[in-house]
Design brief:
Blueprint: H1 18-41, H2 46-58, E1 71-72, H3 78-88, H4 90-109, H5 121-143, H6 152-163, H7 170-185, H8 190-195, H9 198-213, H10 234-237, H11 243-268, H12 278-295, E2 301-302, H13 304-312, H14 319-334, H15 345-358, H16 361-370, H17 372-387, H18 390-409, E3 412-419, E4 428-437, H19 442-450, E5 457-468, H20 470-486, E6 493-494
Parallel strand pairs: 4-5, 5-6
Antiparallel strand pairs: 1-2, 3-4
Helix pairs in contact: 1-2, 1-13, 1-14, 1-15, 2-12, 2-14, 3-4, 4-11, 4-12, 5-6, 5-11, 5-15, 5-17, 5-18, 7-9, 7-15, 9-15, 11-12, 11-13, 16-17, 17-18, 19-20
Length: 519
């Protein structure tokens, strides 16, 4: 038998700490209404959302990447899934999700996930705030047992009617407000809060009150999972040759990857533990989606709401997210009747509380005072997410952050020095331009040059420029040509030395025509 001296077999039992155990229950309570709600909003049976949540815990949860990030069906893909189901049929959904998972695994193997490290803090905070606002608005209707409008704009427009009690169930509102009060007041007793987290207490008391008083409120209702499993058939695989199907697959893969990796960056900022390996996390998400596709269920992403609840509940390892999948499987598949005791308003209160915490209200005022540009990026990102979608909001935030960075580094300094004439004349004006000459600062640069006296000889020194883009180079050449045409005494001279010193090749008495060598 061949021996491997460096190999040390290790058989560790799967131990779960009390912190991970309680955190898993909290995440389960947060994930359950999300799984059901996303499935219903996507136009598929609620059980498919639970299947995706179970796979997110038992498959993706076991894989390396991010230890505390929790995966499952996400609201960011709801519209895309709805359109895909109605365009290609429910049977094709599994093929779409499976193919998207394969694309994600390929992106991770190619190590493209590393690019998501360069995420602006303001964009991440704006993403959290936008998700929190969307969550709060949506769960207000759920808490009141009211029918929620379809779009976010309609939901915002319907809030006044909701506040007036139109279509509202009073018992559900009472249960939801009671759960919210428990969530706010329970942490005031730190010893009790360490033993039992506030969401567990809130949901437990709400379920107990609903059962004892037999309140007329809507409760969770889920049937068996086995009947909902729909593996793709031979005819479904043939749809992959269609251009529209391929486009949908790429959209699934890119949006799911972006949401997961942006979420990973946000989760890393919520705790001090091990950082996310973005490539491994992308492979884990792709593997989970491949399994979901084989089962014919919804696509998954890493969901920031569940992940934030996991971190705040005190999770330490990936055991919490794996166990949350176990609870989903146990209670939804084995004991679905147990879910019927929980009023929908109680989990809605948990989500409302979590959504409020995602909005950095206290940090926004100091950020506005110290870094006004970052505050604008945060607000625009959050507002765009509320107005459009998560993916579009993050994309707008990233573009705005890049534009802000480009503006910040585009500094041009213009210094003018008098060089006396030995014969007692007015002498020469030496104009030194330093910094980064880009199109963003072109108006300032041209205004300064146009303000120079027209009856003086000018020496334009570009040796201090670290970068000159094409727009600035062309503008400077045009300015020099125009000035040369108007000179009455002598042509302007250019000491446009390159950054390393010395006069560029081809210069004729320092003429401006050699400006391009300084770019």
């Amino acid at each position: 038998m061949r021996r491997f001296p460096n190999y040390r077999p290790s058989f560790r039992p799967f131990l779960v700490s009390r912190a991970d155990f309680t955190a898993s229950l909290v995440v389960f309570l947060v994930a359950l209404p999300l799984c059901v709600g996303v499935a219903v909003a996507s136009g598929v049976p609620a059980e498919l959302g639970l299947i995706t949540g179970i796979v997110g815990g038992l498959v993706t949860g076991l894989l390396p990447g991010s230890s505390l990030q929790v995966s499952g069906p996400a609201a960011g893909l709801t519209v895309l899934v709805y359109e895909a189901v109605h365009s290609y049929g429910a049977g094709t959904l599994g093929v779409l999700v499976l193919a998207a998972g394969v694309v994600q695994v390929g992106l991770g193997v190619l190590r493209l996930g590393q690019w998501f490290r360069a995420v602006s803090v303001s964009v991440v905070q704006g993403m959290l705030a936008g998700i929190g606002l969307v969550l709060v608005v949506g769960q207000l209707y759920v808490l009141a047992d009211a029918v929620a409008p379809g779009t976010m704009g309609q939901k915002l427009g319907g809030l006044p009617r909701l506040a007036l009690g139109t279509g509202v169930t009073g018992s559900a509102v009472a249960v939801g407000i009671g759960a919210l009060l428990v969530l706010i007041l329970w942490p005031k007793w730190p010893r009790a809060a360490r033993l039992v987290p506030a969401p567990l207490v809130a949901v437990g008391l709400a379920a107990g009150a609903t059962w004892l008083l037999d309140l007329p409120v809507r409760r969770l209702a889920v049937s068996g999972l086995l009947d909902a499993v729909r593996p793709p058939g031979p005819g479904d695989w043939a749809r992959l040759t269609e251009v529209g199907v391929i486009g949908t697959v790429l959209a699934f893969a890119l949006i799911a990857s972006a949401e997961s990796l942006f979420g990973a960056a946000a989760v890393d900022r919520l705790h001090d533990g091990r950082r996310t390996d973005y490539d491994k996390e992308l492979i884990a998400q792709g593997t989970g989606n491949a399994v979901c596709g084989l089962l014919g269920s919804l696509p998954m992403t890493a969901v920031i709401v569940r992940s934030a609840a996991n971190v705040r509940a005190g999770a330490r390892t990936k055991a919490s997210r794996v166990l949350h999948g176990v609870w989903l499987l146990l209670f939804a598949a084995v004991l679905p009747g147990a879910l019927g005791v929980i009023p929908v308003a109680a989990p809605a209160a948990v989500l409302l509380h979590a959504g409020f915490k995602l909005v950095p209200v206290r940090a926004l005022v100091p950020l506005w005072r110290e870094h006004r540009g970052e505050a604008v990026v945060l607000a625009v990102t959050a507002g765009t997410i509320v107005a459009t979608s998560l993916f579009e909001g993050v994309l707008v935030g990233l573009l705005l952050a890049v534009a802000k960075t480009a503006w910040d580094i585009s500094h041009v300094h213009i210094e003018t020095q008098e060089q006396p004439d030995e014969q007692g004349g007015d002498g020469v004006l030496r104009v030194r331009v330093a910094g980064h000459a880009t199109f963003l600062r072109l108006p300032k640069l041209l205004d300064a040059l146009d303000g120079l006296p027209r009856d003086r000889t000018v020496v334009l020194d570009l040796s201090g420029l670290h970068h000159t883009d094409h727009a600035c180079a062309a503008a400077l050449e045009g300015w020099a040509a125009e000035r040369k045409a108007r000179e009455t005494r002598e042509e302007p001279r250019l000491s446009g030395q390159e950054r390393g010193g010395g006069e560029p090749d081809g210069a004729e008495d320092g003429r401006i025509a050699t400006l391009g060598s300084t770019t």
